[in-house]
Amino acid sequence: MIMLAGMSLKEIESLMVKLKATQFRAKQIHNWIYAKSVSSIDDMTNLSKDFREELKQIAVVTDTKIKCKQISCDGTIKYLVEFPDGNCVETVLMRFDNRANLTACVSSQVGCAVNCSFCATGKGGFVRNLTSSEIIEQVLAIQRDTQLKVTNIVFMGQGEPLLNLDNVLKALEIFNTDFQIGARRITISTSGIIPGINKLADMDLQSTLAISLHAPNHELRSELMPIENKYSITELKKALKEYVEKTGRRITVEYILIHGFNDTPAVAKELAYLIKDIKCNINLIPYNSVIENDYKKPSNNDVMKFKYLLEHSGKKVTVRLERGADIDAACGQLRGRIAQ
Ligand code: SF4
After folding, report:
1. Which of 219, 176, 17, 16 has its CA nearest to residue 228?
2. Model-level pTM?
3. CATH number at residue 200
């Protein structure tokens, strides 16, 4: 069966050629999927009944389902999206009260090989890459469920996007052209996969690149992120500077603050020194304690002190609001819990 969700307008037009249908039909179908968020061909009521029956012989709108959903009192919704092979990924919808933005945090892989020590997804290992359609389906599942239009996308869910770059780029193009989400409203986050960063630098995308740094030196970083042993912080800094030079774009440095580990004033000063010559904003993320490990949430006082010291570097520093504190909001928690 062909899955219509995830197909670009061009791909739907080619399908119409095979069915000897008009190109106008392609536009109608495209509109039903991306603007009206329907889940079934029967819902495409401006197609003739005969044509819908013909289309149903070979295609479905979607073959994924929402296996589970948690709603936080702050409006964050976490979905567990299940694909036909039984694999599931997490997708989160975040709403920010003071803005009209609806941000979808999408997964790019089932599981993850990077194995960061603070992450529940990494613990389960890598299962497989998602196809571009499966990436797109996560956003469509949100839109179908809420009947709201997603305005921003962050590739910060499960998996390492730069280890599935071809499918991520194809999905990004469809988000951009078919969902009409501006490239500047799309962020790709990486743990520091240097070949992928180099490739993005050569492509000169308008999207934002976010780097999960989490520590300012090799010793601390390799404790949190084994990827540091493959792509060291020294090489990473070089790649980031080249990226900024080639694209002129400011990157985002993501930094998880863990109590007593990487949240001290000495570490803040070291981080400020490391990034002083990189064009970047910094996003501090106070760690959300989970049962699966011993890392602790930092105190508000330590977070503010860390922010203050970093701001001395002249960078814009934000502290990410805690979203979904009352649900399994940390990456991989919901999937892990449901799989048990
Ligand atoms: S934090 Fe991201 S890159 Fe690291 S293990 Fe988890 S999913 Fe993979």
Report:
1. 219
2. 0.92
3. 3.20.20.70
